[in-house]
From TrEMBL:
Native species: Thermophagus xiamenensis
Keyword Transcription regulation (UniProt): yes
Compartments reported by the entry: Cytoplasm
InterPro entries per record: KH_dom-like_a/b (IPR015946), KH_NusA_2nd (IPR058582), KH_sf_prok-type (IPR009019), NA-bd_OB-fold (IPR012340), NusA_N_sf (IPR036555), S1_domain (IPR003029), TF_NusA (IPR010213), TF_NusA_bacterial (IPR030842)
Oligomeric and partner information: Monomer. Binds directly to the core enzyme of the DNA-dependent RNA polymerase and to nascent RNA.
SMART domains registered for this protein in UniProt: S1
Functional summary from the UniProt entry: Participates in both transcription termination and antitermination.
SUPFAM superfamilies: Nucleic acid-binding proteins, Prokaryotic type KH domain (KH-domain type II), Transcription factor NusA, N-terminal domain
Designated name of the protein: Transcription termination/antitermination protein NusA
Principal subcellular localization: cytoplasm
Pfam families: KH_NusA_1st, KH_NusA_2nd, NusA_N, S1
């Protein structure tokens, strides 16, 4: 029977997609009614009964009994003689209810029903997928790599839904093969060409926050709060944490015994260095902690400009700035202050000369490269070897030697 096949088809879909009973009945009724409208022009005088448990359906039509020869609309009216074929007791003005045999409408009607049902199921599936993942924005999902392209990767979740992990949202060290399991956070869900598009990310600070929640029970339970996270994915991250319980050390709890808790997170992020910092409302102390591992000598805060001048011993400057200026950049993002680093000058350094004084002999972009690694004076450059300067800047060795000769000439 065609009707049973239709119900079976829908039941299989329900089992796979977890569609609730009420929704399933509504979709079936809507599909039948759309076909009835096409055949009769209206479905208002029809009752559609779907029995999901038995896997069948019934369609009943209600028509008013009118005198013979006065039938104007065969769909809503029935002649008295025809009505009495159902029951000889019918009288004019009464209502006849008779079952409609859907199969008598032919294969075209059945095909139309199938197409309508399939269309509604597809739209329902899209809506449910969009709704499901809209509610999961900010949550981690696990899926299997199904296809890898140049700009993005297709992930399938445990229900076979398609998720997209763009290359821009992958950690630089990420390298996956088809069939591998991937964890990422849902960052965006949108409709594109009437299809739900679910975008994942492994570079978002939210992904790191969720990983901490998984690894640190105190965060999951709300005993420790993550105040802010800043990241350079795959390289370094800074996490400010705070505990509302004086008995709990937030940094120690996040790191774990011998780093047991944070090691799992670091492995997931391909050895991304993670600095866990104790949050404080004391701006000077917070900036000092944010510049870890450098040891700060003193700090001057300019609240109006949201700027801080930080003074360190010469050997600490490079640690504060970090490779390519990464450490100081993340510290600025974490604290919300623009941080300028200065070398603490001793008496013997009073004769030191700012690199800006050599702008006539050294090109500006070269001076900027040197300042980016914390070398803002002549002696701060001369304190480093040619090898160190070559490794820490993008300058050629020949250029560095020329700079050193110019600076040495100043003190000879």
């Amino acid at each position: 029977m065609e009707n049973i096949n239709l119900i079976d088809t829908f039941s299989e879909f329900k089992e796979l997609k977890n569609i609730d009973r009420a929704t399933m009945v509504r979709v079936l009724e809507d599909s039948f009614r759309s076909v009835l409208v096409k055949i009769f022009g209206s479905d208002k005088n029809f009752d559609v009964i779907v029995n999901v448990d038995k896997g069948d359906f019934e369609i009943w039509r209600n028509r008013e009994v009118v005198p013979d020869g006065e039938v104007k609309d065969p769909n809503t009216q029935i002649a008295l003689s025809e009505a009495r074929k159902f029951d000889p007791d019918y009288e004019v003005g009464e209502e006849v209810v008779d079952e409609v045999d859907f199969h008598k409408f032919g294969r075209r009607a059945i095909l139309s029903l199938r197409q309508n049902l399939a269309g509604q199921i597809l739209e329902l599936e899209k809506d449910q997928l969009y709704q499901k993942y809209s509610e999961r924005i900010g949550q981690i999902v696990t899926g299997e790599v199904y296809q890898i392209w140049k700009r993005e990767m297709l992930i399938l979740d445990d229900e076979g839904n398609e998720l997209i992990l763009p290359r821009s949202e992958q950690i630089p060290g990420d390298f996956f093969h088809k069939g591998e399991t991937v964890r990422a956070v849902v960052i965006k869900v949108e409709m594109r060409n009437n299809n739900p598009l679910i975008i994942l990310s492994r570079t978002s600070p939210v992904f790191l926050e969720r990983l901490f929640e998984f690894e640190v029970p105190e965060i999951y339970d709300g005993l420790i709060t993550i105040k802010k996270i800043v990241r350079a994915p795959g390289e370094r991250a800074k996490v400010a944490v705070e505990s509302y319980d004086d008995r709990i050390d937030p940094v120690g709890a996040c790191v774990g015994m011998k780093g047991s808790r944070i090691h799992g997170i670091v492995r997931e992020l391909h050895n991304e260095n993670i600095d866990v910092i104790n949050y404080t409302t004391n701006t000077q102390l917070f900036i000092q902690r944010a510049l870890n591992p450098a040891k700060v000598s003193s700090i001057k805060i300019f609240e109006d400009e949201k700027r801080a001048d930080v003074y360190l011993k010469p050997e600490e400057v490079s640690l504060a700035i970090g490779k390519g200026g990464l450490n100081i950049r993340l510290a600025s993002q974490l604290t919300g202050y623009e941080i300028d680093v200065y070398r603490e000058t001793d008496d013997e350094d009073e004769e030191d000369v700012s690199l800006e004084e050599f702008s006539d002999e050294i090109e500006g972009w070269i001076i900027d490269e040197l300042k980016a690694i914390g070398c803002d004076t002549a002696k701060s450059v001369l304190d480093l070897t040619v090898e160190d300067l070559t490794k820490r800047t993008d300058l050629e060795e020949e250029t560095i030697r020329d700079v050193i000769n110019i600076l040495k000439a100043e003190f000879e």
